[in-house]
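Forwarding the complex inputs:
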Amino acid sequence: AQSVSQHNHHVILSEAASLELGCNYSYGGTVNLFWYVQYPGQHLQLLLKYFSGDPLVKGIKGFEAEFIKSKFSFNLRKPSVQWSDTAEYFCAVSVSSGSARQLTFGSGTQLTVLP
Amino acid sequence: DVKVTQSSRYLVKRTGEKVFLECVQDMDHENMFWYRQDPGLGLRLIYFSYDVKMKEKGDIPEGYSVSREKKERFSLILESASTNQTSMYLCASSSASLGNTIYFGEGSWLTVV
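Prediction (whole assembly, two chains):
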């Protein structure tokens, strides 16, 4: 079975700082990759996803992620964070040929942006 | 937009009570899920359903059951609530036609006292 690791549990940045959140997965086959965000008091929302093609994926609100197959990584980046980016971020992996069930989430990274 | 609606945002129940959490989606998705979210543990899959009356156990099904009598509705049942079931419960849905991207409801905060 696949697994997902998010090594940073809590990240604190000042506004305008650059962000990179790590996500590593373990699975030898073809995967679909997702980043979800949960703003305080709100439901989980899809930030971006990778299925195939260009490994650099752009999502909403200026976020992007790069799939590096050789490193089993799908790190989330943003060049300049804002206070409104304060949220919890979840990386998720699904096996592309498997059932919808096989979506595995990381434990999440809480991002706090100081004004 | 996909809309996944969970009927109760906040519930407080007593130990031993039977608890029903209801979820409805309006996009004709064939797949529906129940997760629980706990600090430091991320999201863990309790049960999922890929069709009406069909269900499969997730990673932590113990103490839970589910019901899917109609395509748009997926219910989570706690037969006898316990304090270790205090958590945030998230319903979600997806469709293979949309690449199995999962869409979440707003969550139900359940406190068992």
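Chain A has a mean pLDDT of 91.
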